[in-house]
Amino acid sequence: MESTLKHSIYQHTDIQAADAVAKAFIDKTPTMVEYPFKFPELKPYEVRLRILYTGLCHSDVHTVKSEWYPAQYPVVPGHEILGIITHVGSEVQNFKVGDRAGFGPQRFYCENCKACKRGAIQLCNGNLAPETLFLYDPYFGGYATQIQGPAKACVKIPEALPNDRTPPLLCAGVTVYNPIKRYVKAGDNVGIVGIGGLGHLAVKYAKAVGAHVTAYTSKVAEKKDELTKLGADEVRSSVDLEDLKTGAGTQDFVLTCVYVAGNQMEAYVNLVANGGTYCQVALPAHGEKLNLDIGRIVMGQIQVAGSLTGSIKDLDEMLEFSAKHNILPDCE
Fold first, then answer.
1. pTM score over 0.85
2. Is the separation of the CB atoms in 50 and 146 below 8 Å?
3. Euclidean distance between the first and final Cα of the chain, in Å?
């Protein structure tokens, strides 16, 4: 057992000597073990947070099951983190001990590649070694009592946002806010497909920018009242192919927050009006492919896009927008 608990960065120790305690996955099985550990020495550019709340993201499931790439066990996932800063590196100027702050999915970025220079740091493809682009694996994420990471990937939390419901905004929130900001304007018809963690926030953001929002769900009867309260103007089936055909060409923008294959995906693209945009944010397991009608895309001059989280600037903007419009996730 002890050999499976060795880690390349953190020292596994007894709980009395530990800096923090994590819940770690030591293999693909869905069982967490308590993992007391010591941090490496705080780097000049790092901060350490005492974690108050961490959100659960489906990315965590993909990672611990090695569905995207071979995970480096033991893995401590979690990239929707809110806490209080307890340690500040000697070069850090924008945070102090006691600040309320958070980490999203990104750990580091080079600042020198083309993506970074145009502000899209989430697309950084520079040489980051020994750091990594994403927050966890091999580094530890938020399923722990504390986290240590680069201050430039940390964000301050607006006072108006509560501790317990803000963490999902740091991944799910910015993941749907960013494409809505990029593609949607007031008065547009917007379809949101898949009303889960991502989709219910997308409904709220799209409504807040003044769009006419149609929520597509597999559980229309069960969720119609709930989705109407969230801001949906219409609620329709995401699985009834015949019903989806009746909505073909009606949406200026479709944001798909689930992954499905085959005819169902084609039906979602067909919802897009000529000249509109289809955007996918949900990620499947590695190797899954989209099935698209290229003729429809070309003849309708439809943009097909993907969107990956957002930059630190995007996170700050999304948090301020959420505070202004009182947009928070529905948490269980």
1. yes
2. yes
3. 34
